[in-house]
Amino acid sequence: MARLEEVKLFSGTNSRYLADKIADYYQQPLGDLSVHRFSDGEMQPVINESVRGCYVFFIQSTFAPSENIMELLLMMDAARRASASYITAVIPYFGYARQDRKDKPRVPISAKLIAEMLQAAGANRIMTMDLHADQIQGFFDIPVDHLKSEAIYIPYLQEQNLDDTIFASPDVGGVKRARTYAKHFEKNLVICDKYRKRANEVAGMTVIGDVDGADVILVDDLVDTAGTLCRAAEIILKKGAKSVRALCTHPVLSGKAYENIEKSPLTELLVTDTIPLKRESSKIKVLPTSKLFARAIRNTHEHRSISALFVEG
């Protein structure tokens, strides 16, 4: 059997809260990396140990501000120039993923640009979770390990009482995601059909399907201002549902999101820790991703299957 290269784990500045937990599960301390900043804010990451010939994993979610993306690019460039054998960008939350197509004239396809920048900086592999659209994987010419939050949420939901549960998608684009849960638990699926006049503002919504007397779970990949989720919860309850809660992988939670959630009829909002919460809320419960990422990193290094992490049995 061929010798495995040494693994080095490093964290970006704003993802240290998660990288520490991943390193704990991996049973290896994070590598020594510092970021020097010039007086004008320009940054210079410095890897303070040898990475020559190593499998290097940089853990950094690219949520706002965009500095997180720049820092990740610079860290990878430093490792490439230091002769790292293989560089993986571990991006729990892949920012700019909502801009994956031209939906109006004269706009960028930002997700494609970010993909090209990551590859140009030296990434040999990308590891991420719940991309806004699966086809973003096609923007890369390198392997993409697309982890699924079902591996976290399904075991949690199996411990709950789901006798009268129906799963729902808050929009047509998320039907495939919600159907995964409905199929696994052998439950019905309903769809909320929405339309917008502008970004982050829902102009209208219709529920397709029967929710009378049911406990409804809304399924989405991210929650930003929470306008869609809260509007969906209100309409579903008006249609006769007993309760509504939601699960969303990435808690972007910008603007008045916390106020919207706390004032909404949502019983509970389940999120993961791909993005740190700005503040606590009695309605928001965070489930950890660190164990899943640690196992995926180990499987990558040992050339074992990643999809096996999501296979039942």
TrEMBL record:
Q: Name one Pfam family in it.
A: Pribosyl_synth
Top EC class for this record: transferase
* Catalyzed reaction equations: D-ribose 5-phosphate + ATP = 5-phospho-alpha-D-ribose 1-diphosphate + AMP + H(+)
A single GO cellular-component term on record: ribose phosphate diphosphokinase complex
Question: Has keyword Ribonucleoprotein?
Answer: no
Q: Name one GO molecular function term.
A: kinase activity
User: Is Transferase among this UniProt entry's keywords?
Assistant: yes
The EC designation for this entry is: 2.7.6.1
Question: Domain named Ribose-phosphate pyrophosphokinase N-terminal: which ranges?
Answer: 7-122
| Superkingdom of this protein's organism | Bacteria
UniProt keywords, alphabetically: ATP-binding, Cytoplasm, Kinase, Magnesium, Metal-binding, Nucleotide biosynthesis, Nucleotide-binding, Transferase
Q: Which SMART domains match?
A: Pribosyltran_N
The name on file for this protein is ribose-phosphate diphosphokinase
Origin species? Flavilitoribacter nigricans (strain ATCC 23147 / DSM 23189 / NBRC 102662 / NCIMB 1420 / SS-2)
Q: What is the lineage of its organism?
A: Bacteria, Pseudomonadati, Bacteroidota, Saprospiria, Saprospirales
